[in-house]
Structure formats: structure tokens, C-alpha cells
Amino acid sequence: MSPRIDPVNTSTMIPTQSTVVIIGGGIIGLVAALNLAERNIPVVVIEKGKLAAEQSSRNLGWVRKTSRLPEDIPLAQAADRLWATMAERVDSDVGYRQAGIMFVARQADQMAMHERWFEHVKHLQLDSALLSSAEIARRVPGGNCAWAGGIFTPSDGRAEPTKAASAIAKAAQRLGAVIVENCAVRSLVTSGGRISGVLTERGEIKCEQVLLAAGAWSRRFLINHHIALPTLPLICSVLQTKPLEGPTDIAVGAPDFSFRRHHTGGFIVTQRGALDAPLTLDHMLIGLRYRQQLKQGRGNLRIGFGRYSFQDLRLARHWKENQRTPFEQIRTLDPQANSGLNQEALKNLIEAWPAFKAAQIAQQWAGVIDVTPDSNPVIGSVTSLPGLVLATGFSGHGFGTSPAAGQLAADILSGQSPLVDPAPYRYERLS
Ligand SMILES: Cc1cc2nc3c(=O)[nH]c(=O)nc-3n(C[C@H](O)[C@H](O)[C@H](O)COP(=O)(O)OP(=O)(O)OC[C@H]3O[C@@H](n4cnc5c(N)ncnc54)[C@H](O)[C@@H]3O)c2cc1C
After folding, report:
1. Are the beta carbons of 364 and 337 closer than 8 angstroms?
2. Could you tell me if the CB of 179 is within 6 A of ligand 1?
């Protein structure tokens, strides 16, 4: 099952040439396309399935600075500014509301983690504040729990994934970007050691530069070109409730649930303390690089062989230009939602805020997250292949920063001064 995305009329013809080809019509590729089109740079977005049908419509919609790695916060601050004017820029509501995000801690060690983060980011002058249990109760009334404390950032917020990507795509089209769906890019074309085009299942598009924004598929795409990009998959399950009063407009994350209001009046809920970690061949190849993450997050990972593991094993890792690729075999990654985890989330939420007793599940889905060893994305050039830029590996938090991340990718492609320091995102740190 998947969320209903605002429809976009895309092009049925693929052009034979452009300046930039973007592989992947998720929010990152689409924001980059909007920025390039605004700069009058010819751009084509090629999407193997439907726009935003993978992570970019399945995410929770949180737009946050809280709990980010300090080096990733300038990008999130830039994204806040860009979200604030996005509706006007694309002439359509993208659901952005700066209603605040609050994390609550059940135990002292969880609170200590928030306190450490708060200390580490003090120099960035965020509006975050540590909260007592009484302050949490005042901001989000009707609760049943005595929390060890919490942290609240009023300038954090949310946007609507099922609206934002489509609105951005339409705005990019109005400015001349060509967007094609149901067309997989099979491989890169090079000449003289640099990018000269892409080969799609419907023929070649000549271009000067390629932006790879293929989410969970980027690693497999690059393996075929012998370019290493370490990412591992995690699966996050989500439920949406039918319309419900609810206790607050603030998005709240507890150790074992989270909720935020949806634009239709329901709530988007997940088990924040549990992600499915399907084992794949990549765990044997690059798993050791995730030792630190495993040490910190082991309790949150449900590691095992599941449907995704077997599907992944069956997909080719190398192919020839005339062969059908994994991208044509799986147009949309649509893992089964773990309804057990969703039920757990709802139960924990009801215990904490009994107003959710009235919640009825409207829909459930899951999405595959592409996680890098340091949890930061790659936004940068691959120096060994001039003309290739990556914007991928967003590690479960790329929706919130997408307006800035896509713009940074466009800055790199067009040689403009970068929106923020790109150093934390360079490809070479992982290679
Ligand atoms: C359940 C869930 C909850 C999340 N919650 C949040 C949140 O609250 N806040 C937040 O900031 N982030 C969140 N995230 C992360 C966020 O959704 C992602 O970081 C972000 O959407 C990444 O966008 P993307 O464009 O890189 O990837 P995607 O949206 O996955 O797009 C990649 C696209 O590339 C296409 N593609 C791949 N290969 C090819 C090819 N060869 N040819 C053509 N097309 C190709 C795919 O079909 C896909 O549409 C969440 C993710 C999930 C799954």
C-alpha cells in the first residue's frame, strides 16, 4: 500500500539531448530540477516509476533541526528558509507548517542524549529548549506519562510529502524542465573519460552532466560502473489515522512512537524505536563500516531475513546495456508494512496520550531508507568521473532538508557558489 500522491502530467517523449539529466524523480531530484530550470539550464528528470513514489511520498514529513548532526544543521536552517517561501515559489500549498517538534524522554539516559545534543549545538543559536515533564504537559495536554524530560524546537515543523514533490515538479515543468515517468536509466554513457549521456530503456539522452538522485537504488546503479557508494537499507513502517481531534499541532517523538498532524485531519504515526533491517549481500560487503551505528542503535533494529532480503538477492548487480535492469523489474519499491510495529506504536501512543484511543487506522505503508555509514548524505561530484554529481544517501532525514539539498546539488552542477559549505557531504569521505 502507498500514500496517494498529487498527480502530475509528465512527458511521454524523451528528448535526445539536454545539459543535465537527473536520474530519479524523488524530492531531491525534483528540487534540483526546479533550481536548474529557474537558472535557464536545460534539464531532464528520468524516473523509473512514478514521481515521489518511493521515499519521497512515504516519509513522515518532519522538517527538523533537532537531533541532527551539528555539521548537517546549516543545511537544515537553509531548508527552513526555503520551505517558508516554497508555496509562493511553486504557486501551490506544500503543507509546510512551522508548528514545532518535541522529543520526549522516558528515562534519564535518553534525556542525557538530548542534553548532550543541546550542548553540542549551542554555538548555532537554535531556538531549541530543554523541557521538564510539567512543561511537556503544558504544551501537549492530556498526557498520562511522567517524562524524564524533553526538548522542543518551535521553528521545526512539517510539510506534506504527497503534495510537495508534485508541486515542485509542476513548477519545474512550467519553467521548461522535462520530466519523464516509467523510464529507467540503465547506465551512464562516457566519452573521453567524462559523462556524455545516459542510456535509458527508451534510448540515449546526450548530456554534459548527470545528477544521480536515485535514493535506495543509487548504490546498485553505481556498482555497475564500479563506483563504490556505501549505503544499507532500513525499512520504516508508518500508519495514518482517520481524522481525529488529537492533543496538539506539535509533532512529538517519544522513544517508542511518534505522531504528527496530517493535512487531512488525521495523524501520521510510527514506532520510532524500531526499524526493520533486512539482511542483504551488502551487509557482508560493507557491514563493518556500520559498527558505530550498530553499537548505538542495535536496540532499535529488527535484523533478519525477510521478503526484501530475498528480493534484493534476486536482483542483478551487473548488467549489459541491452539487458533489462533491476530498475525495470521493480518500478516502485513497496515493502510490506510491519503492522505489528504499527500496532505497537499506536498502543504506546494511546498509553501516553489517551486522546488517541479514538484513532482508527486509515492506511499503512512502509518505505526503504538508504543509510550511509555516517548518516549524512552525499551531495557532490565524483572526481574520478567528471560530469557525475551525486545527491543521495539521505539516511532517513532528507525530506526536511530537500529544498536546500536539491539547491546545493544544482549549485554544484551549475558552478554557482554553494548555498552552504558542501564539505560534510563530499563523496570522497566515504570512498
Ligand atoms: C518511512 C519513512 C519515513 C521518513 N521520514 C522522514 C521525515 O520525517 N523527515 C525527513 O526529513 N526524512 C524522512 N525520511 C527520509 C526521506 O523520505 C528521504 O531522505 C528523501 O525522500 C530522499 O529523497 P530522494 O529523492 O533521495 O529519494 P527517493 O524519494 O527514494 O527517490 C529516488 C527515485 O529514484 C528513482 N530511481 C532509482 N533508480 C532509477 C533509475 N535507474 N532510473 C530512473 N529512476 C530511478 C526511484 O524510482 C525513486 O523514485 C523518511 C523515509 C521513510 C522511508
Report:
1. yes
2. no
Residue 236 beta carbon below 6 angstroms from any ligand 1 atom = yes
Rounded to whole angstroms, the Cα distance separating 408 from 431 reads 20
Q: Which domain holds residue 278?
A: 20-429
- C-beta separation of 386 from 194 below 8 A: yes
Closest ligand 1 atom, residue 395 Cα: 19
User: pLDDT tens-digit profile of 113-139?
Assistant: 999 999 999 999 999 999 999 999 999
pLDDT bucket at 298, cuts 50 / 70 / 90: confident
Q: Does residue 61 have its Cβ closer than 6 Å to ligand 1?
A: yes
- Does the CB atom of residue 46 touch ligand 1 within 6 A? yes
| Residue 380 Cβ < 6 Å to ligand 1 | no
Q: What angle do CA 240, 245, 248 make, to 5 degrees?
A: 90
268 grid coordinates: 501520521
- C-alpha to C-alpha distances, 427 to 25, 215, 405, 411, nearest whole angstrom: 21, 15, 14, 16
pLDDT tier at 155 (50, 70, 90 boundaries)? very high
In a domain, 292, yes or no: yes
Question: Which residue's CA is the closest to the ligand 1 atom numbered 21?
Answer: 56
Is there a domain that residue 211 lies in? yes
DSSP secondary structure string for all residues of 17-65: B-SEEEE--SHHHHHHHHHHHHTT--EEEE-SSSTTTTHHHHS--EE--
**CA 57 to ligand 1 centroid distance, Å:** 8
Q: Total structural domains in the chain?
A: 1
- CATH number of 217's domain: 3.50.50.60
What DSSP state is assigned to residue 97? B
Q: Supply the residue whose CA is at minimum distance from atom 13 of ligand 1.
A: 397
In whole angstroms, what separates CA 260 from the centre of its chain?
17
Atom 15 of ligand 1, residue of closest alpha carbon: 396
Q: Does the pTM of the predicted model rise above 0.85?
A: yes
Q: How far is the C-alpha of 351 from the C-alpha of 293, rounded, in Å?
A: 30
7 in a structural domain: no
Distance CA 56, CA 215 (A): 9
Residue 15 lies in a domain: no
Which residue's C-alpha comes closest to atom 4 of ligand 1? 59
Helix (H, G, I), strand (E, B) or coil at 383: coil
Report which protein residue has its CA nearest ligand 1's atom 19.
398
